[in-house]
């Protein structure tokens, strides 16, 4: 009867754990949400997104009209210059002049052709201080255009490429947020595993101390050998070492997680075990379809090919026959007073076509063209290879994800069985039915099963958030991951 009472008392004592304040426990989703909104990594991603936005605005500005004011106020000079006389001789005259001008102009680029349309208004004043004369020359309105012929159209290619680049940057921001979830999940389970090790070490030390007290009483009664008592004391020392190591590991893992979150280094964090898995079924075809629609890679592949084609077009058009057509039509007048210079202006026109035709370049143009063609082929092959690897990576992740769900269920059951077996082994040892060696074996299997369960959870959640990153799709809600409004 005494043995039976002692058995139940020990069993109750071994199963008791210290109460934890639930308000201090944080979940994986809470930690991820904090990291995705406050961490330094998120701020870097947000800054990168802002940079891409202003690059996009810069591109749009190239297609909008620009208004500029230019001038020279004043351009004064006083000097002695050689002046050719009517009889052909040279005389040196003192010259005191000022030449000031203002030009107000509006320029509009034409993306379709790569040319420009402009409207200018110009005023010039000339002062000859020696002669006491002042003249004005005005161009109230001057309309013109400049159009490259048979030349590379930079604006036209930018219209094809830059929208893809900007769309990529938006998708990249979403990917960066999901990558944060991956990073913080790893840090979360690094700390969780150390906290579990710490909890195991604490319980093992407490249990060993209780068993030693019982074993010493048994030794006094001659029911166990001195060797069993010494083995238990050695186990106690090992458990104390394990607890000290676990305490240090928890501090280091806490520091790493707090640093990532931007929290004080010593802030304590008590983590919950995310044992409840999301109920979802993911197929390869579903994951591939979402990845093609949502990931930036689809846009990046298309942009890479366009850039290679752009470089080929530039090589063909920038080193061959080049011509530029320039034409203006406007009004002009000159007078001794400002108002008279704007009265009854006369027409003025200008048309100019300039060209450049290389006769012999030593094969440079051909080499540049062939290089661009080879780079285009290389880009096509690289894009094809990247597409295959991208799809293979997704297929592998989907298959691994399904396997890990099964693994979590198995290790969870194994953890429960190992814990029950150890509880029975403890009680059986107390009544003298098994040896200390059998108890230590049960203890080791219990600890190993607990760590295996936590490791399987870590691998599952890492795979879960990796799959979200690869597809930018929320399989729990069945919606794409997009930018927050």
From TrEMBL:
Gene3D superfamilies named in the record: Outer membrane efflux proteins (OEP) (1.20.1600.10)
Record's GO cellular component terms: cell outer membrane; efflux pump complex
Keywords noted in UniProt: Cell outer membrane, Membrane, Signal, Transmembrane, Transmembrane beta strand, Transport
InterPro entries the UniProt entry points to: OMP_efflux, TolC-like
Residues of the signal peptide: 1-19
Gene Ontology molecular functions: efflux transmembrane transporter activity; porin activity
Pfam families reported in the protein's UniProt record: OEP
Coiled coil: none
Keyword Transmembrane: yes
Compartments it resides in: Cell outer membrane
Family: Belongs to the outer membrane factor (OMF) (TC 1.B.17) family.
Protein known as: TolC family protein
Source organism (scientific name): Adhaeribacter radiodurans
């Amino acid at each position: 009867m005494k043995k039976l009472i002692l058995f139940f008392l020990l069993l109750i004592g071994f199963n008791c754990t210290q109460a934890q304040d639930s308000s201090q426990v944080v979940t994986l989703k809470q930690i991820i949400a904090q990291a995705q909104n406050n961490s330094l990594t998120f701020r870097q991603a947000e800054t990168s997104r802002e940079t891409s936005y202003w690059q996009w605005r810069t591109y749009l500005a190239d297609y909008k009209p620009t208004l500029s004011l230019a001038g020279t106020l004043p351009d004064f000079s006083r000097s002695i210059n050689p002046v050719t006389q009517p009889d052909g001789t040279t005389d040196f005259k003192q010259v005191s002049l000022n030449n000031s001008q203002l030009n107000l102009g509006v320029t509009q680029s034409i993306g379709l052709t790569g040319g420009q349309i402009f409207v200018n208004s110009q005023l010039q004043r000339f002062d000859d201080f020696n002669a006491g004369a002042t003249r004005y020359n005005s161009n109230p309105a001057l309309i013109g255009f400049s159009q490259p012929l048979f030349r590379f159209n930079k604006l036209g290619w930018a219209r094809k490429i830059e929208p893809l680049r900007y769309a990529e940057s938006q998708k990249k921001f979403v990917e960066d947020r999901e990558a944060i979830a991956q990073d913080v999940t790893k840090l979360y389970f690094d700390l969780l595993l150390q906290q579990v090790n710490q909890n195991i070490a604490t319980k093992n030390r407490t249990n060993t101390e209780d068993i030693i007290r019982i074993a010493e009483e048994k030794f006094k009664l001659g029911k166990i050998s001195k060797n069993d008592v010494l083995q238990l004391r050695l186990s106690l020392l090992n458990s104390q070492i394990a607890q000290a190591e676990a305490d240090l590991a928890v501090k280091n893992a806490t520091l790493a997680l707090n640093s990532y979150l931007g929290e004080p280094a010593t802030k304590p964090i008590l983590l919950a075990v995310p044992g409840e898995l999301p109920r979802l079924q993911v197929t390869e075809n579903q994951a591939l379809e979402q990845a093609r629609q949502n990931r930036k890679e689809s846009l990046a592949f298309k942009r890479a090919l366009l850039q290679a084609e752009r470089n080929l077009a530039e090589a063909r058009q920038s080193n061959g026959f080049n011509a530029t057509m320039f034409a203006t039509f406007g009004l002009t007048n000159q007078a001794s007073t400002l108002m008279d210079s704007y009265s009854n202006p006369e027409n003025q026109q200008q048309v100019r076509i300039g060209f450049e035709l290389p006769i012999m370049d030593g094969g440079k143009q051909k080499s540049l063209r062939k290089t661009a063609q080879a780079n285009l082929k290389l880009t096509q092959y690289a894009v094809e290879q990247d597409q295959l690897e991208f799809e293979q990576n997704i297929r592998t992740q989907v298959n691994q994800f399904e396997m890990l769900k099964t693994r979590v269920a198995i290790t969870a059951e194994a953890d429960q069985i190992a814990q029950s077996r150890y509880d029975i082994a403890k009680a059986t040892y107390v009544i003298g039915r098994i040896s200390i060696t059998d108890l230590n074996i049960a203890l080791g299997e219990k600890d190993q099963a607990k760590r295996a369960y936590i490791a399987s959870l870590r691998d599952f959640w890492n795979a879960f958030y990796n799959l979200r990153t690869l597809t930018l799709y929320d399989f729990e809600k069945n919606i794409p991951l997009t930018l927050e409004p």
